[in-house]
Automatic annotation (TrEMBL):
<protein>
    <submittedName>
        <fullName>LADA_0F14158g1_1</fullName>
    </submittedName>
</protein>
<dbReference type="InterPro" id="IPR052564">
    <property type="entry name" value="N-acetyltrans/Recomb-assoc"/>
</dbReference>
Length: 246
Protein backbone atom coordinates (compact mmCIF):
# COMPACT_ATOMS: atom_id res chain seq x y z
CA UNK A 1 0.00 0.00 0.00
CA UNK A 2 1.73 3.20 -1.12
CA UNK A 3 -0.39 6.26 -1.66
CA UNK A 4 -1.48 9.62 -0.33
CA UNK A 5 -4.81 11.40 -0.59
CA UNK A 6 -6.95 14.35 0.32
CA UNK A 7 -9.75 14.58 2.87
CA UNK A 8 -12.02 11.54 2.38
CA UNK A 9 -15.82 11.49 2.10
CA UNK A 10 -18.10 10.07 4.77
CA UNK A 11 -17.84 6.34 5.28
CA UNK A 12 -20.34 4.26 3.28
CA UNK A 13 -20.47 1.67 6.04
CA UNK A 14 -23.02 3.50 8.17
CA UNK A 15 -25.73 3.22 5.56
CA UNK A 16 -25.02 -0.18 4.05
CA UNK A 17 -27.77 -2.78 4.17
CA UNK A 18 -27.51 -6.54 3.92
CA UNK A 19 -27.05 -7.96 0.44
CA UNK A 20 -28.90 -10.82 -1.25
CA UNK A 21 -27.51 -14.22 -0.37
CA UNK A 22 -25.92 -16.13 -3.25
CA UNK A 23 -24.34 -19.55 -3.44
CA UNK A 24 -20.76 -19.42 -2.16
CA UNK A 25 -17.88 -21.85 -2.27
CA UNK A 26 -17.88 -23.40 1.21
CA UNK A 27 -16.19 -26.59 0.15
CA UNK A 28 -12.68 -27.42 -0.98
CA UNK A 29 -10.45 -24.39 -1.45
CA UNK A 30 -9.37 -25.63 -4.91
CA UNK A 31 -12.92 -25.34 -6.28
CA UNK A 32 -12.94 -22.96 -9.26
CA UNK A 33 -14.16 -19.56 -8.07
CA UNK A 34 -14.93 -16.86 -10.65
CA UNK A 35 -13.19 -13.48 -10.27
CA UNK A 36 -15.27 -10.51 -11.34
CA UNK A 37 -14.37 -6.91 -12.01
CA UNK A 38 -16.90 -4.70 -10.25
CA UNK A 39 -18.13 -1.12 -9.90
CA UNK A 40 -19.81 -1.47 -6.50
CA UNK A 41 -17.07 0.32 -4.58
CA UNK A 42 -19.19 0.74 -1.46
CA UNK A 43 -19.57 -3.00 -1.11
CA UNK A 44 -15.89 -3.53 -1.87
CA UNK A 45 -15.01 -1.15 0.94
CA UNK A 46 -17.29 -3.05 3.32
CA UNK A 47 -15.39 -6.28 2.68
CA UNK A 48 -12.01 -4.61 3.10
CA UNK A 49 -13.14 -2.86 6.27
CA UNK A 50 -13.98 -6.26 7.75
CA UNK A 51 -10.66 -7.68 6.58
CA UNK A 52 -8.61 -4.90 8.22
CA UNK A 53 -10.80 -4.34 11.27
CA UNK A 54 -8.01 -5.26 13.69
CA UNK A 55 -4.98 -4.23 11.63
CA UNK A 56 -2.97 -1.62 13.53
CA UNK A 57 -0.51 -1.33 10.65
CA UNK A 58 -3.33 -0.46 8.27
CA UNK A 59 -4.73 2.09 10.72
CA UNK A 60 -1.31 3.72 10.91
CA UNK A 61 -1.00 3.92 7.13
CA UNK A 62 -4.49 5.32 6.63
CA UNK A 63 -3.74 8.08 9.14
CA UNK A 64 -0.38 8.90 7.58
CA UNK A 65 -1.75 9.04 4.03
CA UNK A 66 -4.21 11.81 4.99
CA UNK A 67 -1.90 13.61 7.42
CA UNK A 68 -3.86 12.74 10.56
CA UNK A 69 -1.58 13.12 13.60
CA UNK A 70 -0.58 9.74 14.96
CA UNK A 71 -1.66 10.64 18.50
CA UNK A 72 -5.11 11.83 17.38
CA UNK A 73 -7.94 9.40 18.28
CA UNK A 74 -9.57 8.15 15.09
CA UNK A 75 -12.70 6.00 14.84
CA UNK A 76 -12.96 2.99 12.56
CA UNK A 77 -15.63 4.87 10.64
CA UNK A 78 -13.06 7.51 9.79
CA UNK A 79 -10.38 4.94 8.93
CA UNK A 80 -12.85 3.20 6.62
CA UNK A 81 -13.68 6.52 4.98
CA UNK A 82 -10.01 6.90 4.09
CA UNK A 83 -10.00 3.36 2.72
CA UNK A 84 -13.10 4.12 0.67
CA UNK A 85 -11.42 7.19 -0.78
CA UNK A 86 -8.49 5.06 -1.95
CA UNK A 87 -10.82 2.56 -3.58
CA UNK A 88 -12.69 5.29 -5.45
CA UNK A 89 -9.40 6.92 -6.42
CA UNK A 90 -8.13 3.70 -7.99
CA UNK A 91 -11.44 3.26 -9.79
CA UNK A 92 -11.34 6.82 -11.13
CA UNK A 93 -7.76 6.31 -12.32
CA UNK A 94 -8.63 3.18 -14.29
CA UNK A 95 -7.72 0.65 -11.62
CA UNK A 96 -9.20 -2.83 -11.44
CA UNK A 97 -11.41 -3.62 -8.45
CA UNK A 98 -12.31 -7.30 -8.36
CA UNK A 99 -14.23 -9.65 -6.10
CA UNK A 100 -14.60 -13.40 -5.60
CA UNK A 101 -17.29 -15.47 -3.88
CA UNK A 102 -19.89 -12.69 -3.75
CA UNK A 103 -17.50 -10.14 -2.21
CA UNK A 104 -15.97 -12.59 0.24
CA UNK A 105 -12.63 -11.25 -1.01
CA UNK A 106 -11.83 -7.99 -2.76
CA UNK A 107 -8.66 -6.67 -4.38
CA UNK A 108 -7.73 -3.28 -5.82
CA UNK A 109 -5.06 -3.14 -8.54
CA UNK A 110 -3.48 -0.68 -10.93
CA UNK A 111 -2.80 -2.29 -14.29
CA UNK A 112 0.24 -2.11 -16.58
CA UNK A 113 0.41 1.31 -18.18
CA UNK A 114 -2.19 2.66 -15.75
CA UNK A 115 -0.09 3.51 -12.69
CA UNK A 116 -0.33 7.01 -11.26
CA UNK A 117 1.57 9.29 -8.93
CA UNK A 118 0.24 10.22 -5.50
CA UNK A 119 0.54 13.39 -3.46
CA UNK A 120 3.23 13.38 -0.82
CA UNK A 121 2.32 13.52 2.85
CA UNK A 122 3.61 16.23 5.19
CA UNK A 123 6.15 13.80 6.69
CA UNK A 124 9.44 13.71 4.70
CA UNK A 125 10.65 10.57 6.51
CA UNK A 126 7.47 8.68 5.60
CA UNK A 127 7.64 10.01 2.04
CA UNK A 128 11.18 8.71 1.62
CA UNK A 129 10.20 5.24 2.82
CA UNK A 130 6.93 4.82 0.93
CA UNK A 131 7.42 6.99 -2.14
CA UNK A 132 11.12 7.35 -2.88
CA UNK A 133 12.85 4.22 -1.62
CA UNK A 134 10.14 1.73 -2.61
CA UNK A 135 9.73 3.35 -6.02
CA UNK A 136 13.47 3.18 -6.65
CA UNK A 137 13.68 -0.42 -5.48
CA UNK A 138 10.81 -1.49 -7.75
CA UNK A 139 12.45 0.22 -10.71
CA UNK A 140 15.76 -1.44 -9.88
CA UNK A 141 14.17 -4.89 -9.73
CA UNK A 142 11.72 -4.64 -12.63
CA UNK A 143 13.71 -2.38 -14.98
CA UNK A 144 11.72 -2.55 -18.26
CA UNK A 145 9.11 -4.99 -16.94
CA UNK A 146 5.67 -3.52 -16.17
CA UNK A 147 3.37 -4.86 -13.48
CA UNK A 148 -0.01 -5.15 -11.87
CA UNK A 149 0.35 -3.28 -8.59
CA UNK A 150 -1.79 -4.51 -5.69
CA UNK A 151 -2.94 -1.64 -3.53
CA UNK A 152 -4.96 -3.84 -1.16
CA UNK A 153 -6.55 -7.27 -0.86
CA UNK A 154 -8.70 -8.65 1.92
CA UNK A 155 -11.16 -11.37 2.88
CA UNK A 156 -14.38 -10.99 4.87
CA UNK A 157 -13.28 -12.51 8.17
CA UNK A 158 -16.88 -12.88 9.32
CA UNK A 159 -17.26 -15.74 6.79
CA UNK A 160 -14.57 -18.27 7.79
CA UNK A 161 -16.40 -21.15 6.07
CA UNK A 162 -16.22 -19.46 2.68
CA UNK A 163 -12.97 -20.61 1.13
CA UNK A 164 -10.83 -20.12 -1.95
CA UNK A 165 -11.63 -16.46 -2.53
CA UNK A 166 -8.17 -14.94 -2.09
CA UNK A 167 -6.57 -17.86 -3.91
CA UNK A 168 -8.92 -17.31 -6.85
CA UNK A 169 -7.92 -13.66 -7.15
CA UNK A 170 -4.21 -14.38 -7.00
CA UNK A 171 -4.40 -17.28 -9.45
CA UNK A 172 -6.42 -15.12 -11.84
CA UNK A 173 -3.83 -12.34 -11.77
CA UNK A 174 -0.87 -14.69 -11.91
CA UNK A 175 -2.31 -16.13 -15.12
CA UNK A 176 -2.83 -12.62 -16.51
CA UNK A 177 0.71 -11.62 -15.56
CA UNK A 178 2.21 -14.74 -17.15
CA UNK A 179 0.24 -14.23 -20.36
CA UNK A 180 1.21 -10.55 -20.60
CA UNK A 181 4.83 -10.98 -19.54
CA UNK A 182 4.47 -8.66 -16.55
CA UNK A 183 4.92 -8.95 -12.79
CA UNK A 184 2.65 -8.66 -9.76
CA UNK A 185 3.92 -6.22 -7.13
CA UNK A 186 2.72 -5.55 -3.58
CA UNK A 187 3.87 -4.49 -0.13
CA UNK A 188 3.19 -6.79 2.82
CA UNK A 189 2.57 -4.49 5.79
CA UNK A 190 3.47 -7.07 8.45
CA UNK A 191 4.97 -10.53 8.93
CA UNK A 192 1.65 -12.36 8.76
CA UNK A 193 0.85 -10.79 5.40
CA UNK A 194 4.33 -11.69 4.17
CA UNK A 195 3.78 -15.37 5.00
CA UNK A 196 0.41 -15.34 3.23
CA UNK A 197 1.85 -13.82 0.07
CA UNK A 198 4.77 -16.24 0.11
CA UNK A 199 2.23 -19.07 0.19
CA UNK A 200 0.72 -17.69 -3.02
CA UNK A 201 4.06 -17.54 -4.82
CA UNK A 202 5.40 -14.07 -4.08
CA UNK A 203 9.05 -13.51 -3.16
CA UNK A 204 10.35 -10.88 -0.76
CA UNK A 205 12.99 -8.64 -2.35
CA UNK A 206 13.24 -5.78 0.14
CA UNK A 207 12.29 -5.30 3.80
CA UNK A 208 11.83 -1.90 5.39
CA UNK A 209 10.87 -0.41 8.75
CA UNK A 210 8.18 2.24 9.04
CA UNK A 211 6.59 4.10 11.92
CA UNK A 212 9.84 3.95 13.90
CA UNK A 213 9.86 6.62 16.59
CA UNK A 214 6.13 7.15 16.13
CA UNK A 215 4.36 3.98 17.27
CA UNK A 216 5.09 0.71 19.00
CA UNK A 217 4.43 -2.68 17.42
CA UNK A 218 0.75 -2.41 18.34
CA UNK A 219 0.30 0.98 16.73
CA UNK A 220 0.23 2.94 19.98
CA UNK A 221 1.91 6.37 19.88
CA UNK A 222 5.45 5.99 21.24
CA UNK A 223 8.38 8.32 20.49
CA UNK A 224 10.69 5.36 21.14
CA UNK A 225 8.53 2.80 19.35
CA UNK A 226 9.86 0.16 17.00
CA UNK A 227 7.10 0.70 14.44
CA UNK A 228 6.34 -1.99 11.86
CA UNK A 229 8.26 -3.96 9.24
CA UNK A 230 7.03 -4.14 5.66
CA UNK A 231 8.18 -6.14 2.66
CA UNK A 232 8.29 -5.41 -1.07
CA UNK A 233 7.16 -8.63 -2.73
CA UNK A 234 6.96 -9.61 -6.37
CA UNK A 235 5.61 -12.49 -8.43
CA UNK A 236 7.15 -12.97 -11.86
CA UNK A 237 7.27 -16.05 -14.03
CA UNK A 238 10.87 -15.51 -15.14
CA UNK A 239 13.98 -14.00 -13.61
CA UNK A 240 13.77 -10.38 -12.58
CA UNK A 241 16.55 -8.47 -14.36
CA UNK A 242 17.45 -6.49 -11.25
CA UNK A 243 17.40 -9.39 -8.81
CA UNK A 244 20.50 -11.27 -9.92
CA UNK A 245 22.47 -10.29 -6.83
CA UNK A 246 19.63 -10.74 -4.32
Amino acid sequence: MINGLISPPASPLDSMKSKPIVKLNQGHSRTVVPVNRINDIERATLTLAKAFKDSKANDYLMKKFVNIPIDEPVSKTRINAVLHYFNTLYSDKGGEIVEANDFDAVAVWSAPGQHFEQDLTNDPVFNKIFFDDLHDKRDELLQDIDCYYLFIIGKDLTQPRVRGSVRAIFEHYKQKADAEGVALVLEAINEHAKSVYEYFGFKNYYSFAYGVGEVDGNGNPDPNGEGFVGHLMIYYKGDLPGAKDI
